[in-house]
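User: Okay, second chain of the day. Same drill as before: sequence in, structure tokens out.
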Amino acid sequence: MPEHTTTVVIGAGHAGLAASHFLSERAIDHLVLERGEVANSWRRERWDSLRLLTPNWQSRLPGHRYGGPDPDGYMTMGEVVEFIDRFAALSRAPVRTGTTVTSLRRTDDGYHVTTDRGEIGCRTVVIASGACNRPAVPRLSEAVPAAVEQVTPFGYRGADRLPDGGVLVVGASATGVQLAAELQRSGRQVTLSTGEHVRLPRMYRGRDVLWWMDAAGVWDQRYDEVPDLTRARRLASPQLAGTPTRATLDINALTRMGVELVGRSAAVRDGEMLFSGGLRAVISLADLKMARLLNTFDEWALASGQDVKPSERFEHTHVPASTRLRLDLRGGAIRTIVWATGFRPDYTWLEVPVVNEKGHLNHDGGVVDSPGLYALGLPVLRRRKSTFIHGIEDDAREVIDHLTRYLATR
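Assistant: Same drill. Structure tokens below.
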């Protein structure tokens, strides 16, 4: 006979643990199932030097805040794991680690969860397994010559573990620019294939740019207020890095280091990577959007009477007069390709028809298109800050409120 509980939460990262906190607060019996350990993706699927993009003062979970000596610093991965571990202990979350969900299907009275450690029946389920379960590597990677090593951020740990020689980094979001910088500093020649991206300064008018996002209410914009929600949910992470110097890491910074810019990767033919010729347009758009956002901050500062440094603007991104449109992958100059091309969720275990043709859940603010099924931790789930650690508290509270009302009617 299967075990029974009211709610199963799938995933024991910060999102699943926040859900557990509010379930406990409402006295709803539940289990949190985790394929590895608490905060497993932070432990196992990040490179060694990575730090959070968000400053420490912004690290908060329900009833749990950063209390260390460096509020303006940025947590290392070990510190993130420790922070989430501490939250799990404080909230006494009923986590069952080393338990992989292999199937979730609908039943007459709720859901049936199959794991590699047994069966569980429940009335409701919260999917908190994240949006970054698998790297999203384009099909053109299949045509890359075998002599070129290909890695993703999941497999990358440090520059010293890659072959000597040049590196092509594909993707210019936060991951791409951080890895390009690290690899260039290691003495390798890096080529950065640049598609659509979000440019931000690390500091603006004397404050961390994410302070402005928080204070001006940008993070709190609700999903039903976003003009193009589908596009917002696909938006790449901003070009930021959390470093002790609080330096801006954008394309200008990379080119000053010696990184070569090329356009978006378009195809691999006869051992050559071909690039789009639209680099200048992509970069101009990123500059324009950054300027608009900074204008929003300025307007808010003026209206609220904030005592901050004067308004400032940043130099345009410099684009070479011409960039190469093809790169030989057979001659030995490029020994490694790093695919910093984003991530996608894994719902292969989900036997409920709620996944669209793009592989994403059909949901309205985390209420999935199947009664009693919910999601947390997805991009712009209920607010623009949904995927960040500090953004989960409000989302989890509202989603669990909905779940509680659903249980009351059944």
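The chain has two domains: 3-133+345-408, 136-339.

User: Thanks, on to the next one.
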